[in-house]
């Protein structure tokens, strides 16, 4: 009900002040929007198959057939993470976007999981432009190759009218120079693009494609004047927001739902200013919907290739192993122990003292039954291609890191499932949340370490094993932390390879984690 109340308010606001004279409709257009899609196959949720691009293609085709003034817009994140992306580096998803007839896309943070060259391969294979106004290459200082800051499209049809639309794309600042990229302020970039589109290009409508969290989209909606609609991504939650300024839409992920929008445009006329009437509807993608035969054939080809990976056995699981988001992102979990132990053990005894793993890096969101464990399973657990690093740091820095991450997990009486939760080896800790983004470590001790016992002291020096992602995007963004790289990402091994080696090193290659708790959260 909340969504539809917000929507009704949007309709009234869009045409406020127009009752004095009857408005003549200038143009009508249809929009299909989605974001954060990594899988070609449907996901299973509570026993029901949902999502999948093949079921969206017929919707897009029907939309275009009914109204040629139609657009398909994609708000970023597709190259990773998934089991398939580790093998095909996002190229499989390009085939889906092309078949859907995407008109414009913007960058998401996962577009750089395989480096700049990986993105350029995807960009060159795309039948649509990638819009980007604030991501630049460090080496040249120029806008990321394979992208354009903005675009202009005139939609015109005898029945549905004519409208000139400007588009631009921005994403959040990842603050990660290891990607070979840097980012300008997305709000300032957006303001510049709106100025160009409004004053130079003289467009009738401006659509922003964004990939950032909802707080950033709230600011863009409120502070960037001249934007009429925001097609957004990144939060993995379906939402329509109309409370700040320009409305924005976010779908969830993996085509589990999409947004359909009908937009009526009324040009400035007499004493009336230009106005829009927008009708937004979230559409759930379910297994009973028809599929697209052409895309189905493409998916079948990829499925056969991936099937070979699932046949290679790594070991066995002795009892059901829970990788659901509600577990790995919220509490101490056996699979968190497995990841942390695998990282700690990979480089040999004595090379690391502490291992850290974020819950958001443990994927698939499912429970694995007891039985055979394949390489395909393991690769699905860690599909990002992240590398295992070792750094030398101290107790004070470790505490700052855990505090930063766990504050991100503290909600109002609940642990937020946003992926910040820290799983560990070599230490154990307890954290108390006292409110949303408020709390503190109440204890942190050495745990099952061969030589260290008792509380971790601020002055303790030790080696910490963690992913290059955690090091670059989380640890190194904390003021005052200390670190010296011992094994860099260039010298390291992928997490999935460390997991495979760990399972094979166990007696009879049997994964049977039943150890004591290593961390806890209280309120």
TrEMBL record:
Domain of life: Eukaryota
Region forming the signal peptide: 1-21
Coiled-coil residue windows: none
SUPFAM superfamilies, alphabetized: 5'-nucleotidase (syn. UDP-sugar hydrolase), C-terminal domain (SSF55816), Metallo-dependent phosphatases (SSF56300)
GO molecular function annotations of the record: hydrolase activity; nucleotide binding
Pfam family, one: Metallophos
Record's protein name: 5'-nucleotidase
Organism: Pythium oligandrum (Mycoparasitic fungus)
Source lineage: Eukaryota, Sar, Stramenopiles, Oomycota, Peronosporomycetes
């Amino acid at each position: 009900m909340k969504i539809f109340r917000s929507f009704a308010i949007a309709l009234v606001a869009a045409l406020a002040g127009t009752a004095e004279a009857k408005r003549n409709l200038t143009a009508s257009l249809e929009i299909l929007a989605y974001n954060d899609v990594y899988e070609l196959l449907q996901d299973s949720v509570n026993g029901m198959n949902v999502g999948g691009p093949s079921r969206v293609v017929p919707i897009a085709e029907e939309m275009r057939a009914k109204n040629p003034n139609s657009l398909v817009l994609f708000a970023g994140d597709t190259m990773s993470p998934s089991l398939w992306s580790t093998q095909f580096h996002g190229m499989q998803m390009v085939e889906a976007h092309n078949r859907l007839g995407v008109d414009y896309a913007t960058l998401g943070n996962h577009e750089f999981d395989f480096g700049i060259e990986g993105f350029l391969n995807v960009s060159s294979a795309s039948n649509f432009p990638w819009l980007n106004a604030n991501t630049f290459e460090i080496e040249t200082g120029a806008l990321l190759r394979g992208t354009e800051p903005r675009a202009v499209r005139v939609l015109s049809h005898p029945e549905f009218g004519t409208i000139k639309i400007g588009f631009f794309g921005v994403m959040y600042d990842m603050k990660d120079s290891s990607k070979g990229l840097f980012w300008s302020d997305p709000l300032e970039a957006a303001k510049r693009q709106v100025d160009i589109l409004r004053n130079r290009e003289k467009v009738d409508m401006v659509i922003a494609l964004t990939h950032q969290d909802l707080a950033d989209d709230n600011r863009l909606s409120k502070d960037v004047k001249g934007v009429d609609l925001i097609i957004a991504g990144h939060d993995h939650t379906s939402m329509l927001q109309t409370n700040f300024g320009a409305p924005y839409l976010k779908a969830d992920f993996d085509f589990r739902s999409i947004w359909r929008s009908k937009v009526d445009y009324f040009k400035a006329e007499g004493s009336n200013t230009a106005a829009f009437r927008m009708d937004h509807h979230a559409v759930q993608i379910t297994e009973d919907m028809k599929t697209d035969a052409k895309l189905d054939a493409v998916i079948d080809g990829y499925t056969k290739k991936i099937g070979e990976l699932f046949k290679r056995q790594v070991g066995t699981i002795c009892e059901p192993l829970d990788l659901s988001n509600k577990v790995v992102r919220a509490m101490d979990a056996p699979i968190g122990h497995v990841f942390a132990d695998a990282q700690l053990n990979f480089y040999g005894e004595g090379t690391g003292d502490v291992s850290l793993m974020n819950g958001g890096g443990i994927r698939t969101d499912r429970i694995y039954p007891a039985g055979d464990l394949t390489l395909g399973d393991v690769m699905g657990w860690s599909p990002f291609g992240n590398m295992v690093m070792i750094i030398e740091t101290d107790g004070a820095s470790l505490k700052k890191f855990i505090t930063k991450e766990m504050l991100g997990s503290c909600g109002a009486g609940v642990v937020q499932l946003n992926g910040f939760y820290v799983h560990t080896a070599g230490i154990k800790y307890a954290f108390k949340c006292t409110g949303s983004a408020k709390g503190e470590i109440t204890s942190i001790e050495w745990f099952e370490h061969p030589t260290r016992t008792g509380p971790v002291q601020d002055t303790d020096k030790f080696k910490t094993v963690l992913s290059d992602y955690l090091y670059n995007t989380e640890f190194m963004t904390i003021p005052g932390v200390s670190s010296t790289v011992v094994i860099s990402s260039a010298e390291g091994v992928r997490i999935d390879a460390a997991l495979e080696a760990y399972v094979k090193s166990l007696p009879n290659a049997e994964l049977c984690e039943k150890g004591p708790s290593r961390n806890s959260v209280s309120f």
